[in-house]
Each structure stands twice: as structure tokens, then as C-alpha cells.
Amino acid sequence: MKKIGFFIAVTYLVFSFSSCEDVFLEKPFGSDLTVDSIFSTEQKAMGAIAQAYAYSLASGITFLSWDDARTYGMTSGTLSHLSGELNSIKFNWEDGWLIQHSGMTADDGSGKVRSDDGYLMNYKAIRQCYLVIENIDKVTDMSQTDKDIVKAEMKTLIAYRYEEMFKRYGGVPVVTGSLSVKDDLKIPRAELKQLLSHIVSLCDEVAESSLPDVWPDKHHGRVTKGVALAIKAETYMFAARPLFNSANPYLDLGDNNQLICFGNEDRDLWQKAIEASLAVLEWANLHAYEIINTGNPLDDYGTAVAVPSNKEVLLAYKNQQTGGGYYSARSQSGGANGMSYDMLKQYYQADGTEQIWPKISAGKVSFSDFTTRINQMEARYKASAMAPGIDAWNNPNDYNNWSCRMVADFSNWEGRTNNEGCGRRVKFWYHAGNRGWFEFPIYRLAEFYLNLAEAYNEYDDPDSALPYLNEIRNRAGLPDITETDKLKLKKLIQREWAIEFYEEGHRFFDVKHWKHEDIANGIIGGPKLGFVYTYISGGMGYYASDYLTYALEERYKGFWASSQYLSPFPVSEINKAYLVQNPGY
Q1: CA 170 to the chain's CA centroid
Q2: Exposed / middle / buried, residue 528 (Cβ in 10 Å: 0-12, 13-18, 19+)
């Protein structure tokens, strides 16, 4: 394909469609833009392709900007707020706060769903992909090989959107083309097994297609065969975990249990997850993707999660947005974005031993105790959080952008309101300087190592699990785990997931599909703990010398009900009598 500056188009379209729903493929025929005119030349068609990427990769990502219409998910907040990785978002009228305190709902009282996902946006993305597939052959100045590549790209994006719905809703309606008003739009939900088969079939088809394994630099970020393999592997992992892979559903749905449960525990799903994840690693090894490990854990992990186009990221959301959304979250007060105590205690000390923090009963403890203990933490904590009173470890010597002085001088960090939590968000800005944007990692190679650790252990082969688990720990500078007891190793692997993928959109779904024993006891529901601080009288800064004490306190109680294992469908769609609602809503 010609080099057209693909992701410049993606970024432009993200801004355009977020502010205007009258997108070009929805304009009536006879207007200035029609399907035929859009697909008349390759250059024009690239706009439609870029829009398919923008819709497909943005959907479900809640940090783009204020989303008043809940097009993509919550009005505000991130999955990290819902999963218990971060403290409560600040304001009690924001969706992030409301879901934490009262749960998701199919109807918030105004007929709108309050959930982690914009359900209808999934189908808008899928329709856009099918419009490209169905019309790309009309382009006169594109080779058939390139047209086939575009079709494979679109099928990969469709599989990705279905995989995202699979883990959120269970079975959902499956469409196989761009529907029009002449079609029957009331398509019922597919059973879980049918949806699983559909996703896998799409990924297998792409893996046998002419889709590139590697794109030229100017097209870096477009999906590859490796991304299709990654979607398949992640789908099998969620299929194998106990939420779906069970004889009985989490709540009874009567004759429709097959929408949320396979109806039996199929051990072979773990074997399929193993095979699919091994295929990702085999592909990665052939195409220069690898776990970054030079022996410097802070720099290696910081690079892997934050440096654009690094050799560990298979797919990222490449939106170089410099204002609003997640960027502004970097500079909001720690009350909205402070790490929770539940998350902090997942991390190890740098030598791999447990850190012992003062209990609630200890009351106020000298702040010097905090600085001693926090400096003992492992590299992944230091690459992810900026601790109170300490300059950001992942941006050393950057006095103007990532120091205590920056926190004190910028009003966006607000006054000292005892809300710093256990560290402020800095993870995606390793050596960022004044760069505000970042590229959110959708598929990172470490995921498939932990897939293998988890799946091998569940398949009663802990000896095969350990090398994959320790590959990730070794990069973090931690010693090998040698535990082979299945239940004990399971907990260690789940802890590794929490640490390695902090704020990367995994934990909210992982703990649900594991049916984690503490899901209602401090992770999503139950007491939410955090640190609060006292300061010297009249002090105005955030330097260590301005702090007097810290204490562990319960900040609020999170909401949990079994209905929350899966997300609700919008009541507006349920009322059309073609969808079966998930139980409890």
C-alpha cells in the first residue's frame, strides 16, 4: 500500500467523530459523500479504513475525553477505578464514582445504561468494518492483494470487538455484514459457544490470509497476524476461566443459561488457551517482538509499558491526544487517581520479599517511615506511581515536569486534601518530559507469558507454568518462584497479573472471570483503604519535608453484587424485545 500517514488520519477521526455523529458513511445517498465516492480511490478509502480503526480501538476505552453521551462507556473514570486499582474518582455525580458506590445499571433513571462499555458503539465499529470489506473492491487504484489485506484487517478488528463483548456480556448478537434498514435488526444473542466459535473462526481465517506480519514504519500500529493470534489467545483464556467454564452460571438465567455459561467444565479449554498463547510467542519470536530485559528493571518495564512502538507491544491505541481525558488525569489531584492500598500491597519489595505496612490500628506513623518503606519497593511500582514527597522515579532529574516542585506549583494537582493515596499516576509517561499523550497498550507480549503460566497451572502442569511466570518476574528484578502447589501457585500468578498489568484494563475482567475470592472484600466491593497524611503547619509544598505523618484508613466501601460479574445491556435495547438481559439487572 502507499504510505499515506495512516495514524494521522486515525487521530484526526477520533476528534471528528467524538464531536459530531454525522459521519460520512451515515450520510444519505445523494449528499456530497456516498459509499461509492468514498471508495473511488485508495486515498479516499484510507479515511474509511482509519475510521474503522478509530471506532474499533477506541470503543471501551474510557479515557478519551468527557463522554457525556456514554458513547464509549462511562462519562468519566477508568476501568482502574472500577477494579479497585485506584481510589474513588472525586465527584459523586460521575459514572466512575457511581459504579463504585452503587454498581452498574441498565437504566440510570433517565433510560441510559451506566456501565463500563458503550454497547451500541461495538456494533457501530463492526458495521464500519463490514462497510469497508463490502466496498473495498470498488477502489480502482488498489491492487487485489492490498484489498485482501484490508479485508483481513477489518476481520481482525471485528474479532477484537467481539472478544471485548465476550468478556463483558457473555453471548451477544452476531452479525456478518453491514445491516441496513431493510434487514431484520432484531438479532438475538448467540450462545457463548457460538460466539467463541465465531471469534476463533475469524482469527483463524486472518492467520491464513495475506495480512502482514510486519508493516513498514509508516504503517506501524496496523493490525498484523500476530494481533489476530493474540485475540484468539485472550478469548480462549476468558473461555477457560471459571466464570464461563462451569456447569452452573453465576446467577440463574433459566432457559437462557447458555448465554452466560457453557453448562459444563471443559478442561480442554485450558489446553486450547495454551496452544493459542504458544502460537503468539512463536510468532513474536520470528518477528522481533520480545520481553524487554536488559537487566535494568525500572527502565525495562518503563520502556515496555510507555515508550511508543516498543518491541513488546503488539497493538496500541495510537491517539496522540494532548488534552482532556487520560492526559488531564495525569495532572488531576491524587484523590481521583491515587493508587489504592489493595493495589500497593500486591507489589513486592525489590528483593522479592513482602513489605509490611502499618495497620489501621497503628494510627499516625512518622512520614519518614513511609519514605523508607516506599523506597524499598520493586521497580514496577516505581515505574507506575509517583509517591508523595518523592520525585517520579520513572522521570529522574526532570525538575520541571515530574518533581515535587511540579506538584506544588501546578494548581491542577490541587491543594493538600489527604488524597494522594499510595502513589499518583505516572505509568504511561516513562522519560516523557513534557509529553502529555501516550499510546495505550492493548496487547503486550507479557500477557501471553502470564496466560501460559495460568493455563499450565490450571491444566495441572505447574512445572511448565513456572518458566513463563519467572520470565516476567526476572524482568522485574525479582527472584524465581519455585512453588508447585496448584492453589498456592494460582494465587501467586494472579498477583503477578495485578502487578504487571496495573492500569492496563486487565484487572476489572480478570478478577470477575477468576471469581476471585476477595472480589467483594476490598478489590471491587468492600472496604477501600488508602493512606492519608498530615503536614507541617502553613506548609505549601509536596516535598517530603512538608509531610509529618501517614496513616492507613478506610476511605469508603465499594459496591459488589453477583449481577456485576457481567455488564448490563441498555434497557432501551431490552425494551425492543430481541435481547435477553443479563441476570440481576
Answers
A1: 18
A2: buried
Q: Are 540 and 569 in contact (CB under 8 A)?
A: no
- 94-139 pLDDT tens trace: 899 999 999 999 999 999 999 999 999 999 999 999 999 999 999 9
Give the chain's length.
585
Per DSSP, the three-state class of 238 is: helix
Q: Give the type of residue at 450.
A: L
Domain ranges of the chain: 6-76+88-289+566-574
C-alpha torsion sign, points 30, 35, 41, 43: positive
Name the DSSP class of 558. E
Measured between alpha carbons, how far is 80 from 367 in angstroms, rounded to an integer?
Answer: 27
Task: Tell me the CATH class for 6-76+88-289+566-574.
Answer: mainly alpha
Q: Give the Cα separation of 24 and 48 in Å (integer).
A: 9
With CA atoms as reference, report the closest residue to 203 among 275, 124, 288. Answer: 275
Q: How far apart are CA 382 and CA 485, in angstroms?
A: 30
C-alpha cell of 81?
477505578
- CA nearest to 380, candidates 292, 481, 512, 321: 292
Q: Cβ neighbours of residue 304 under 8 Å, at least 6 residues apart?
A: 291, 292, 310, 312, 313, 444, 446, 475
Q: Which residues of 369-405 are buried (b: 16+ CB within 10 A; e: fewer)?
A: ebbebbeebbbbbbbbbbbbbbbbbbbeebeebbbbe
pTM > 0.70: yes
Helix (H) or strand (E) holding 122: helix 119-135
- All cell numbers assigned to 295: 537487566
